Amino acid sequence: QVQLVESGGGLVQAGGSLRLSCAASGRTFSSYAMGWFRQAPGKEREFVATINWSGGTTIYAESVKGRFTISRDNAASTVSLQMNSLKPEDTAVYYCAARSTFGGSTVYTAALSYAYWGQGTQVTVSS
After folding, report:
1. Strand duo 10-13 + 68-73: pairing
2. How far is CA 92 from the centre of its chain?
C-alpha cells in the first residue's frame, strides 16, 4: 500500500507557473505508475498526466500538452507536475494517484485505474 501527499498548490496569475509535488510513503514506489488528475467545482475529475514506473513513458491531456511536465524521482519517492503558462481554466483541485504495475510499463489515463489517491491541493489561476 502507498500513501500520497500533494503539495505546491496556490494562487498564481495567468501566465505564471507552479510546481506540484506528491510524496509517496510505503514500499516499492518504483513499481507504481503515477498520475495527476484535477477536479474543478461542478465538474468531473479529469486526467492531466501520467508517467510509468521508470519515467520513460508519459501521456498528457490535450488541454495541458506543451505546458505541463510530469516527472518522477524514484529514489526520493516523489512525482512532480511542472505547470507553466497557466490559464484560469486550469483552476482546480489537483490529485496525485498511484497504481501498482509490478514493473510493467503501462500507463493509465482513467481515474478508475488508480487504487491510491492523495488528498488534493488547490490551484487557483487568476485572470
Report:
1. unpaired
2. 12
Distance CA 26, CA 56 (A): 22
Q: Is residue 94 within 8 Å of 80, Cβ to Cβ?
A: no
Radius of gyration of the chain (CA): 14
pLDDT in tens, 75-112: 999 999 999 999 999 999 999 999 988 767 888 999 99
SS3 7: strand
Question: N- to C-terminal Cα distance for the chain?
Answer: 40
Q: How far apart (Å, rounded) are the C-alpha atoms in residues 101 and 33?
A: 6
Across the strands, what pairs with 70? 81
Specify the residue for cell string 520513460: 56
d(C-alpha 1, C-alpha 92), whole Å: 27
In eight-state DSSP terms, residue 112 is: G
